[in-house]
Amino acid sequence: MDALQAAGQSQRAADSSQSSPARAPGTKPTPHERLLSMGLRPVGRASEFSDELHLLMAKTPLFSGLDIDETRKLGAFMYVYEAPAGVTVITEGEAGDFMMLLMTGMIDVLRRNRYNYPSRIAVAHAGHALGEMSMFDGEPRFASCVTLEHSRIAVLTRDALVLVLSDEPKLGNKILLKLVQLLSERLRQTSAKLVSYLEAARDT
Q1: Residue-number span of the structural domain to which 113 is assigned
Q2: Is residue 187 part of a domain?
Q3: Which of 52, 69, 109, 127 has the fewest CB atoms within 10 Å of its CB?
Q4: Can you tell me whether residue 107 is helix, strand or coil?
Q5: DSSP β-bridge partners for residue 107
Q6: CA distance between the termini of the chain
Q7: Chain segment 26-58, per-residue pLDDT in tens
Q8: What is the mean pLDDT of the chain?
Q9: Can you tell me the distance from the alpha carbon of 95 to that of 42, in angstroms, rounded to the nearest whole number?
Q10: What is the C-alpha to C-alpha distance for residues 191 and 164, in angstroms, rounded to an integer?
């Protein structure tokens, strides 16, 4: 319970930082503070865009099972930002403590190749979730995400998710169950690719 309370206090501090930029010297910037420092403009809580958010989440595997009431509840823990073109909203290699749902615009997903040059691996459109795995496990980001045009994103931080689990346990557990299913699917896909690779190597 102490961990939940600490996470809740951290998220509430992040909430207040949106209107008050003052922060104690030496403390780590919150995800919201970092997004603001990148030049993103805060629009408001995602709950203000519940209908639009619900349509977008229906396209997103992690949130596709949520009904409109659950979307509204989750939206109360998320913030919406607007970003101009050319902004790196996620950086490869950094620790992940938030995820985003692309509401409008396009985002370039880039990963450095063996020559240390950014190489495109995907282009994200409205309805795509970005950074969700790193948000859950805290591992370094797999790729960088750069806006290709003026974009609007809805952000969910790890601390906010902990608050969801504390304040809306049914909703939080539903999201976690969906995550487990997604991880299982990805593991099966990875295992199948590995088996195919080993079989091909054995036949050569």
Answers
A1: 2-21+28-179
A2: no
A3: 69
A4: strand
A5: 124, 147
A6: 56
A7: 788 899 999 999 999 999 999 999 999 999 999
A8: 86
A9: 22
A10: 32
